[in-house]
Specification:
four-stranded mixed beta sheet; 6 strands
């Protein structure tokens, strides 16, 4: 009697829990092998997802063969003046093969974009394309404005690099100092020999050279500058006029 009650009590519970999957592994004999329409559709979708994608092409690579090509009709003097900077306005490129391929300008960003497009079109997975990049030598035209690559050959004014408290070694500063000394010495001569000192020429600034008994008119400023220049170089004094320069 007890066994019957137990069976009656457990039976409905087992029936209610039938849809729940058992935690034990199913036996081989219990595995369903007949495919359903839903399983066929799922298998087809899975196989489509597992299709192997094609291998990508290797990245495009190219090599620039830089060559120096002198511009036509350029003299030896122009060729000897090697530019310090690159002349971008003279850049051009062409394909290595064939040899008769035209040259294409490469002077701005539009030229670079065109070059990249050409490389992308001729990319090969086995053989990379080779290009030749050329720069013609800049031609120096008569009367043309100076360009950056000509700046190194021009002769500029020397800059003063000495010490402010030390001696001035620069030629420009020396010349300026000499001009100042020349003007001050010429003014000193005009003050030393004013008009009225010479009895023979009382109305003009006259210097009487007694050893030779010669009279020199110092009213003329160029004459005073010549005497002042000789004094600055040590060839004359305020009392000794340079006879050979007059």
């Amino acid at each position: 009697m007890c066994c019957l009650l137990s069976s009656m009590t457990i039976g409905p519970v087992l029936a209610m829990t039938t849809p729940r999957q058992s935690s034990r592994a199913p036996a081989v004999a219990d595995t369903v092998t007949t495919p359903t329409p839903a399983s066929r559709k799922w298998a087809a979708a899975s196989s489509a997802k597992k299709v192997k994608a094609p291998m990508p092409r290797p990245p495009a690579t190219f090599e620039l063969l830089v060559i120096a090509t002198p511009a036509p009709k350029v003299t030896r003097t122009a060729q000897s003046q090697a530019p310090k900077n690159l002349a971008i306005s003279m850049f051009e490129w062409h394909h290595l093969k064939p040899n008769t391929s035209p040259c294409i300008p490469l002077t701005n960003m539009n030229g670079w974009d065109s070059l990249r497009k050409q490389v992308a079109l001729m990319t090969s997975p086995k053989t990379p394309p080779f290009l030749v990049l050329e720069m013609l030598s800049p031609v120096i035209l008569a009367g043309a404005a100076p360009m950056p690559w000509h700046a190194a050959s021009t002769t500029g004014v020397d800059e003063y690099q000495g010490d402010d408290d030390g001696p001035i070694d620069n030629s420009v500063y020396k010349k300026a100092k000499l001009d100042d000394d020349l003007k001050s010495t010429a003014s000193a001569l005009a003050d030393k020999y004013p008009p009225g000192l010479c009895a023979m020429h009382p109305t003009v600034a006259c210097f009487h050279h007694r050893p030779t008994n010669l009279h020199f008119n110092l009213t003329d400023r160029p004459r005073r500058l010549v005497w002042a220049a000789s004094i600055c170089t040590g060839a004359a004094t305020m009392e000794k006029i340079p006879i050979g320069s007059n």
